[in-house]
Design a protein that fits this description.
Elements (H helix, E strand, L loop, with lengths): L29 H4 L9 H8 L22 E4 L4 E6 L9 H15 L11 E5 L7 H9 L1 H9 L1 H11 L10
Parallel strand pairs: 2-3
Antiparallel strand pairs: 1-2
Helix pairs in contact: 3-4, 3-6
Length: about 170
C-alpha cells in the first residue's frame, strides 16, 4: 500500500475521504438584492460564506467533505452572534485547528463589524463527540489571544489564505 503525502512531506491523515453531495445554490429574491431593505443575516448566508473553504489536505471544499453543514450553523442576528460547529473527517484529524481557524478568519473578514466587536460573538467549535482532542482544539479557537497570535504568524496566515482562496473553474486552470 502506498502513502499519500501533502506538499512539504507531511503524510495525509485521511487518504481516502468520503465526498458528499453539495447543497444547491441559494435562490435570491428581489428583496435580497434591494440595498434599501434591511436584510438580517441568517444561517444560510453564513453557510454560503464557509461552504467553499478549501480543505487543507485535499482539493475539495469543507462542504464536499461534510465538515460544514447548514444545520450546524446558527445565527442570532439581533444579538449579532454566530455559532458554527464543524465535523473533522476523522477523529484524529491533525488539521482540525487549522480548519476551525480558517472558518473563523473567513467570518471575521466577511461579517459586519457588529459581529466582530467581541471575538466570542463568533463561536467556531468542533461538533461534540467527533474528535479525540475536541476540548483542546475548542479552547484554542475560543482564545482570542491565541487566534490573534496565529494570525500574526506569516506561515500560518499563508496556509489559512490558501484555504480561503477561491478555486478557478476547471476550464480556467492554467
Amino acid at each position: 500500500m502506498h502513502s499519500f503525502w501533502m506538499s512539504g512531506g507531511t503524510q495525509l491523515d485521511n487518504e481516502n475521504p468520503q465526498i458528499f453531495q453539495r447543497s444547491g445554490e441559494r435562490l435570491w429574491t428581489a428583496e435580497d438584492e434591494d440595498e434599501d431593505i434591511a436584510d438580517p443575516i441568517d444561517d444560510r448566508e453564513i453557510f454560503d460564506l464557509i461552504r467553499s473553504i478549501n480543505d487543507p489536505e485535499h482539493p475539495l471544499s469543507l462542504e464536499d467533505l461534510n465538515v460544514v453543514e447548514q444545520m450546524r450553523v446558527h445565527v442570532r442576528d439581533p444579538e449579532s452572534t454566530v455559532t458554527v460547529e464543524f465535523t473533522p473527517t476523522i477523529p484524529h484529524c491533525s488539521m482540525a485547528t487549522l480548519i476551525g481557524l480558517s472558518i473563523k478568519v473567513k467570518l471575521l473578514r466577511s461579517l459586519p463589524s457588529r459581529f466582530k466587536f467581541c471575538l466570542s460573538q463568533i463561536d467556531v467549535h468542533i461538533t461534540p463527540g467527533t474528535h479525540a482532542s475536541e476540548d483542546a482544539v475548542n479552547k484554542q479557537l475560543a482564545d482570542k489571544e491565541r487566534v490573534a497570535a496565529a494570525l500574526e504568524n506569516a506561515q500560518l496566515l499563508e496556509v489559512v489564505n490558501q484555504c480561503l482562496a477561491s478555486k478557478l473553474p476547471a476550464n480556467l486552470m492554467p
